[in-house]
Amino acid sequence: MNPSPHVSDILRVATYNIHKGVQGIGPARRLEIHNLGLAVEQLDADIVCLQEVRKLHRREAAYFQRWPDVPQAEYLAPEGYEAIYRTNAFTKHGEHGNALLSRWPVIGHQHEDISDHRFEQRGLLHVEVDAHGRRVHVIVVHLGLIPGSRVRQVERLQQFVEREVPPGSPVVVAGDFNDWGLQIKRMLAGFGLYEFDAPRAFTYPARLPLVQLDHVYVRGLSPIGLHVPRGRIWWRMSDHLPLIAEFRL
After folding, report:
1. What is the mean pLDDT of residues 12-20?
2. Structural domain tally of the chain?
3. What GO terms describe the biological role, i.e. biological process, of this protein (predicted)?
C-alpha cells in the first residue's frame, strides 16, 4: 500500500508499541527515542496511537545522556501535531501509558482504568478529534497478557463505547491487543468494530514477525488498506512493528 495523498475523505491511522523508547537489556540497552521521532514522522499518519510511552523514568534519564527533557509523547509529536498522553502504570522509577498524536484539532479526551488484576496496570485513552469537520472518536488500548483479562477488558471497552460515544459516530479502536486468535476479533465485531479484511499483517516480534498483535478496528468508516513497514531500521527501534491503516471517512 502506497501512502495516500491527504485528501478530505481519507483517514490514515498508525498504531505503534514503542517499547518505552529503549531496546535491549542491561548495559547493552540503547536509547531509540530519537530514531522513533523520525519514524513517527515518516508514518505520515493523521492519527498516531502509541503504547508503552514513558512520561518519565528517573533511572533511565540518569543512565542515558540524551534522554529527552520532555515526556516521550511530546517529544515524538511531529510539528503541528497535538499530543495527548495518559498514564496507565506507575512504577518504582516513573510512569508510562498510552498516547495519541493528532494532525487534527482535539475536541476532548479522557482516560479509563481497565486493569483486571493488581499485577497489570492497563487503561484506555479516548480522544475525540475534528476530522475535516467530522467528529471521530479514537480509543487507544493496550490489553493484558492473560486471555481471560483481555476478554473482560474488551467487555469494559464495549461498555465504554456504549456510554461515551454517540450512536452513529465514527469510532477507531487501535493498539496492542496482545492477542493473535479470533476471540477478540469476534467480540469486537459483536458491537460493530471491524478491521481491514485482508491477510494478517504480522507485527511481532519485529525482527521476524510471526503474529499480529497490533490492530486498528473501526465503526462507521470504510477500511481501504493496511501496511506494515519492514526492514532493519524498523526492527531495531522496538519489539513491535508499526501498523498503518487507511479508511474512507
Report:
1. 98
2. 1
3. GPI anchor biosynthetic process
**Any domain includes 2:** no
3 pLDDT higher than 70? no
Domain carrying residue 223: 10-248
Q: Which of 133, 222, 211 is nearest to 178 (CA)?
A: 211
User: Which amino acid, one-letter code, is at 27?
Assistant: P
Q: So what's the pLDDT on residue 2?
A: 46
Where is pLDDT greater, at 160 or 7? 160
**Does 240 map to a domain?**
yes
In a domain, 1, yes or no: no
Quick: pLDDT tens for 110-128.
999 999 998 999 999 999 9
Residue in the block written with cell 483481555: 150
Q: What is the pTM of this model?
A: 0.95
- Domain with residue 193: its CATH number is 3.60.10.10
Supply the pLDDT for residue 7.
61
User: What is the C-alpha to C-alpha distance for residues 176 and 91, in angstroms, rounded to an integer?
Assistant: 20
183 inside domain: yes
